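[job 4471] stage=fold_predict status=RUNNING
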Amino acid sequence: MSKPRQTAFETLYRIFYGGAYSNIALNSALTGESEHKAFITRLVYGVVEKKITLDYIIHKYCAKVKPKVLIILRMGIYQLYFMDGVHSGAAVNEGVKLSEENGLKSYKGLVNAVLRKAASEMLDLDKIDDLSIKYSVPQPLLNMWFKAYGKEKVISFLPFLSEKAPVFAVPNRLFVNARGLIEELENEGIACETAGDGDLVRILSNIELGKCRAFKDGHFYIEDISSYNAVKALCIEEGDVLLDMCSAPGGKAFTAAQMMNGKGRIYALELYESRLNLIKESAERLKLSCVIPKVNDALLYNTSLPIADKIICDVPCSGFGTIRRKPEIRYKELDSIKGLPEIQLEILKTSSKYLKTGGKLLYSTCTLNKRENEKVVESFLRENPDFAVIGEGTVFPSQNGGDGFYHCVIERN
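[job 4471] inference complete, writing structure tokens
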């Protein structure tokens, strides 16, 4: 039996039936793995991402089956439909072997028959009219998006939810600009290109960036372009005092440090010490002494914090803008996120108390859900008439663009 497929099978079982997050389960499974890492990663993320589409194909050939059998069938169908480098015979035969080696000998015939039938017929998925099946997005989520943004807009970004998310590197201006970083990375064999307004670098190679010399030397950090542009909208200046209320892993704080040329104070605030350590380690690697990590509860007013010129309030959210990076997010039950707007509003209200007159606050999320975005800001403004919106925007996933993202800059009058 192929060991990579067994690893993928066990990982998928933990994700679908053990409640594990895909990135955590996969990272654990890949510890010590080198030769087959790319194959396992693609198979696991692909099966999670395409679950609705895969189940639609499977149920054309068989009714309800045991969970482990269903995972084996999903893996086989995914290889047949979405992995050109896998021969159809291998996809079928390895599925049968997985059945035998995982205590499912009595289902070998079923697995063999379903996968062979699927391999011989190969449905034209482009001709499927049902958008939920075609793009593997639950109908309730589609309905929410249709109501919020209109069907035409939603249809325009659905194809990109299945594409690999671009990776953007932010040059650390203490050491290098975008052009210089590209030269360093290319010298290490990493393909890249300029992005944004020429101040970012898009990584084109599929490598572990944490192992490259430029990263270890603190010459760049990773931040999505949508997040980066939101921080730019805050118009941060040298000498500013800035509070980053929900900071981990710290990308927005580091970008703020770049924009103030390291001349100012940035309080990178986080509730848990373990997450705060992520910020500390990265700030030390980047030599950003103006970033001050500090434990803080964003829901409670802290008298020890200073009054700020600028505030970043990037609140916990449903994450629907990051589906390309975390495919299982699309399957969240909408009822499970109903309480988020109330928490987000409380964080925004508490954060606003630190802002000086004339100061600016950035409210942002990485989700596409107006209840967590525009509606939260509207509720805040109704209760706080001394604040006004001076800039707002929603970004939708696109071929070369960043994550789905919402930002709103609010000024205290």
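[job 4471] summary: The longest helix spans residues 3-18.
[job 4471] exit 0
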